[in-house]
Specification:
Elements (H helix, E strand, L loop, with lengths): L1 E2 L1 H7 L4 H12 L5 E4 L5 H9 L3 E4 L10 H11 L2 E4 L18 E4 L6 H7 L4 H5 L8 E5 L3 E7 L5 E7 L2
Parallel strand pairs: 1-8, 2-3, 2-4, 4-5, 5-6
Antiparallel strand pairs: 6-7, 7-8
């Protein structure tokens, strides 16, 4: 079932404690940091940087031609959100939520700037409160929707689909 963001927020608004915690994180001026693997287009990296994001690429990390597991380990070890177009990262047997960094797998369509920006809408919460997106979440994002799979501290997991109208 699809979730309409505005309706979800109206039904279950954040508590005062959650709002305070978010404001505290925002006051630290922390920025989300991304690690773009080899399958992530250069144009998408440029657009993400123009949005104010810190992005390190595989080439800058000197990890070209390394297996996917090495990229995931590097991102987790250094606190990066792994961004890619490689759908292999969505395989929970190879990359279980409990052992992987925050990972966003994009499907950009024909990879025009407009389609890339549309797919990047799922990153808005990461820009606002990056501390909540350090690990245990996978996002499968396209231009019109995204699916989040998350693991929580109590060991439970959730899967939520979002769509823009």
């Amino acid at each position: 079932m699809w979730v309409i963001c505005s309706e979800t927020l109206a039904k279950d608004p954040p508590s005062e404690a959650e709002i305070r915690q978010g404001e505290e994180f925002r006051s630290r001026h922390a920025k989300v940091r991304f690690y773009a693997d080899e399958n992530f287009p250069g144009l998408a990296t440029e657009i993400l940087r123009s949005m104010g994001a810190r992005v390190i690429t595989v080439q800058e990390a000197n990890l070209r031609r390394h297996p996917d597991a090495n990229h995931a380990a590097y991102a987790l070890r250094n606190g990066y959100v792994l961004i890619t177009c490689d759908r292999d990262y969505l395989d929970d047997r190879r990359f279980p939520l409990v052992h992987c960094p925050a990972t966003v797998v994009f499907e950009f369509g024909s990879c025009t700037p407009a389609e890339i920006r549309a797919a990047f809408r799922c990153l808005r919460p990461m820009f606002r409160i990056p501390q909540f997106y350090d690990k245990w979440i996978k996002i499968d994002a396209s231009r019109e929707s995204w699916t989040e799979s998350a693991r929580f501290l109590n060991g439970t997991t959730s899967r939520t689909r979002y769509r823009f109208h």
